[in-house]
Design goal:
By secondary structure, this protein is of the alpha+beta class. The protein has helices at about 10-15, 20-30, 75-85, and strands at about 1-10, 40-45, 65, 70. β3 and β4 form a beta hairpin.
Length: about 90
Amino acid sequence: MKRLEVRVCVCTQCVMNGAMDIVEAVESLQKLKNQLRFNASVKVSANERICDKDADASVSPLVIVNGERLEGATCDQVMSRIISSVS
């Protein structure tokens, strides 16, 4: 079984730009993985700050999927990256 690590920045700026929606989407994927025949273990962690404190708004929300930075991430982008990583 493949393992994926998803880190989501939850600083104020990232939260205001949708970070918590991304966390919920990834967690829902974990709950549905048997129904989707998803053969991977996904660990999601919400980190206080993984983006630069002086970064402009275009980088938030910042998500790291297996070491790859996704700046200005959306739920669709993160889910697509997770699915392509296990294919």
